[in-house]
Amino acid sequence: MIESKLPAVGTTIFSVMSALAAEHQAVNLSQGFPDFPIDPQLKKYVVEALDQNQVQYAPMPGRLDLRKAIAKKIAEQHHITVDPNQEITITAGATQGIYTVISTLIHAGDEVILFDPAYDCYDPAIVVNKGIPIHLNLEFPSYKINWATVNEAANERTKLIIVNNPHNPTGTVWTEDDLHELENLLKKHPQLLVLSDEVYEHIQFEGQHQSVLRNAFIRQRSFVTYSFGKSLHVTGWKVGYCIAPPQMTVEFRKIHQFLVFCVNNTMQYAIARYLETTDIHQEIHALYSKKRTLFLDNLKDSRFKLMPCEGTYFCLLDYRAISDLSDVEFAKKLTIEFGVAVIPVSVFYKDLSDNKVIRICFAKEDQTLINAAELLCKI
Ligand SMILES: Cc1ncc(COP(=O)(O)O)c(C=O)c1O
Predict the structure, then answer these.
(1) Which helix (H) or strand (E) holds 146?
(2) What is the pLDDT of residues 196-228, one digit of tens each?
C-alpha cells in the first residue's frame, strides 16, 4: 500500500460539477476555460512550426525567441527590463512554475502564507514538499488582504508568501497600497520571498495591473508566474513562464530541468511568432471587457447580488436573498433544477467558509452567456 502524501485530496469539485453539468445538460460556467476558437493567425503559426519541423526538444529554459518576445511585452506593460537569458524560464503552464518555485524554496517545516479563497494548486505543493501552509482568509465581502493579520502571522520560519493578482476566484485586483504593504513586510523579514501568481495579468478592467515586477524592491525577492493558456485561450497547451532575479532563476532551473527539462517546442515557436505580430494585451482586454459587460448587463434583473468584478474571467454572485442552502447544495440545485453549473466558493477555503457565494466563469461564447443569464434571472 502507498502511504499517501496528500491524504486529504479527493475528487475535485470541478470534476463533480462538470459531470453533473453533462448529466443534466446544464450550461457549464463552472470550469475556468474559454469555449471559443483561437485566433486563426495563431493556428497558422502552429502549422508553420510543424512545416519547419520544430518538433524536437526546446532549450531547457525555453526558446530564446519566445523569452525575448516576453521581455519585450513586459517592457511595454511595466516599463522595466527583464533579461531573457537570466530571468525568464518557460514552464509547462503556470502550474508547473508554481510547483517548481515551491519545490525550489521549501524545506521541511518552512511556513508559507497563502490567502483563502485560494486557487487549488498552492496548498498541495507546499504539503508535498513538507512545508506548513498558513491559510489566512481574505476579508469578506471586499476580499482584500488584511495586512495587519499578515504581519501577525509572519515570523522567522515564514519562507514564502503566495499572492495572486488579479485574483481567482474573487475577481479582485491589487492597489498600489497592497504593493507598499508587501514591501514593508519583506523589509521586516529578510528571509521571506514572494510567489506572485499573475496568470490573469491582461484581464484587469480598470487601471494598471499592479504586478510585483513594478516595485524594484519586491521584484528582487519575487518569483512571478504567468500562463499563455489564459492569455491566448489555449489552456490545453500548458505553456507559461516564470520571471525571477538571476540567482533565484538558477535555483529554479535546477528543479525545472529534472521536473520537465523543457516545454513543448512546437507551441513555443507558434507563441513566439504570435507575440511578435500581435498586441495580446489590447486583444484580451477588449474581449473580456465586452463579455463581462454583456453577462453582467443580462443579469441586472436577477435576484443575485453581483460582487465586484475587477479582473479575471470570473465573477462572484451572492445568493443570500434567494436561498439559505449551503453553497455546495445551492450549486448542485442550480445545475440540476435550473440548468447552470457553477462553483461554490467554500471549496477554495481550507476552513470551508461558506459566505453564500458562487463563482461563474464568463470566458464563454456570447450566446452561452446570454442563455445562462436568462436561466439565472428565472430564479
Ligand atoms: C490563479 C491561477 N493560477 C494558475 C493557474 C494554472 O495555469 P496553467 O493552466 O497555465 O497551469 C490557474 C488556472 O486556472 C489559475 O486560475
Answers:
(1) none
(2) 999 999 999 999 999 999 999 999 999 999 999
All structural domains of the chain: 13-31+281-377 (3.90.1150.10), 55-277 (3.40.640.10)
- The phi, psi pair for 238, rounded to 5°, reads 50, 60
Q: Which atom of ligand 1 is nearest to the CA of 96?
A: 11
Q: How many angstroms is it from 157 CA to the middle of ligand 1?
A: 27
Q: Kind and range of the H or E element at 182?
A: helix 176-188
Please work out whether the CB of residue 95 comes within 6 Å of at least one atom of ligand 1: yes
CA distance 308 to 328: 21
* pLDDT tens sequence across 282-309: 999 999 999 999 999 999 999 999 998 9
Beta carbon of 199 within 6 Å of any ligand 1 atom: yes
Q: What are phi and psi of 181, to 5 degrees?
A: -65, -40
Distance between CA atoms of 99 and 122, rounded to whole angstroms? Answer: 8
Please indicate whether residue 32, judged by its CB atom, sits closer than 6 Å to ligand 1: yes
* Stated pTM of the model: 0.97
- Residue 355 near ligand 1, beta carbon < 6 Å: no
Give all strands (DSSP E) within the chain, no chain letters: 27-28, 88-91, 111-116, 132-137, 158-164, 193-197, 222-227, 240-243, 305-306, 314-318, 340-341, 343-344, 357-361
Secondary structure of residue 179 in the 3-state scheme: helix
Ligand 1 pocket test: which of 121, 174, 203 has the largest number of ligand atoms within 8 Å of its C-beta?
A: 121
Measure the CA–CA gap between 132 and 126, rounded to whole angstroms. Answer: 7
